Amino acid sequence: MARYEEIAQDLRVLITSGEYPPGAALPLMRDLAEQYGVSDITMRRAYGLLTGEGLIESRGRSGTFVREHPDRLRLTVRTRQMERDELGYYSGPETQGWRPLQLPDGEQTQVVTLLVPADIADTLGVAPDTRLTVRRRLIGDPDVETHRQLADSWLAPWVAEELPLLSGRTGLGGMYDRLEEWGSQPLQWREEISARMPSPEEAAALVMPSTGVPLLRTLRITYFAEAGPERVAEVQDIRMSAAVFALGYPLPRGESARWPVEPATGDYYQDPPEA
């Protein structure tokens, strides 16, 4: 282990144990460099590791401080299910009051044609260098600045061709109502959840620290019930801050785990194993 990694580990233990609580100022780098007998460069690398982990943050001339870490917070748990009210579909009861917020260009919905990301291209069955119609929105709680998400809806080519109105205002009920009206059948959804670090633009839009906090990324895949999951109509790329949100969902039993089950070790309570 390099010397800067050893120093970072020492400081990490002091932070996670509460010796340096959230909001506490860390010693000046030059003082720690003298204490450890290392150069300023070594200390900067140690602090850089902890910054990248989201444990500390620099506040310019004020110094370096311990950040409130997600593991010590009670995150808002987002339930992964589709709900509906008089305005249309929404994803989970926690977001019912959320509304479109203003994008940097001043619009609430930006409809543009862009190169599709490779993983979304694969899901839609198109080449990675394909340009597709995407509806881009920033949605959130008007009363809580950090409770928001970016949502980019990538339309399958056949959907954009059959429903050109989705390239403009979709009206009450939104895109999903228009799709169900057109198809005369219900939509179904599945989701894939991952995490990555945000771009500077994403961090700014989601009111996130510029370093040390990952995005939670959910790809919501939309298809018609009769057509099946292979004929995808839309993929929504949803990003939210992992410093604010966790994702929660029920964990159903598979067919092989249907109750009652045969105990793996026989009748434990009648014939317990010897100590």
UniProtKB/TrEMBL annotation:
Keyword Transcription regulation: yes
All residue ranges annotated as the HTH gntR-type domain in the record: 1-69
Domain of life: Bacteria
Alphabetized PROSITE patterns for the sequence: HTH_GNTR (PS50949)
Biological process according to GO: negative regulation of DNA-templated transcription
Annotated Pfam families: GntR, UTRA
Record bears the keyword DNA-binding: yes
Classification via PANTHER family: GNTR-FAMILY TRANSCRIPTIONAL REGULATOR, MANNOSYL-D-GLYCERATE TRANSPORT/METABOLISM SYSTEM REPRESSOR MNGR-RELATED
Name listed for the protein in its UniProt record: TraSLR
Organism: Streptomyces lavendulae
